[in-house]
Amino acid sequence: MFVKPARGLQVPDPELRDFLPKEGREVTPSEYWTRRVLDKDVTETHPPSTPAPQRAAATNTAKE
């Protein structure tokens, strides 16, 4: 499940032992995160879509 902290809150992540970043994070569904959602400490949402990686321009490295 992907969660984001409510505005202005620092929500501890018990698995990683840090705070949930404001951009949100994929977490393992658990009773802890369900309670955070019900208490409106976090919002369950979809992860941000990442753009497809761009191909590097091919360079001509052959020596003449």
Describe the structure.
The chain has one helix spanning 31-38; strands at residues 2-5, 12-13, 18-19, 25-26, 42-45. The strands form 2 sheets. A 3-stranded antiparallel beta sheet has the order 4-1-5, covered by helices on one side. It has a two-stranded antiparallel ribbon with strand order 2-3. The termini are far apart. It has 64 residues and is α+β, with helices and mostly antiparallel strands. 12% of the residues lie in helices and 22% in strands. It contains 1 helix and 5 strands; from the N terminus they run ββββαβ.
Oligomeric state of this protein? single chain
Taking all residues together, what is the mean pLDDT?
Answer: 87
H/I helix tally: 1
Radius of gyration: 19 Å
Main sheet: strand order: 4-1-5
* Helix percent band: 10-25%
Q: Structural class of the helices, strands and pairings?
A: alpha+beta
Number of DSSP strands? 5
Calculate the terminal CA-CA distance, rounded to whole Å: 55 Å
Taken in chain order, the helices and strands follow as EEEEHE
Low-confidence stretches: none
Shape type = elongated
How much beta, percentage-wise? Answer: 15-25%
Largest pleated sheet: 3 strands, antiparallel
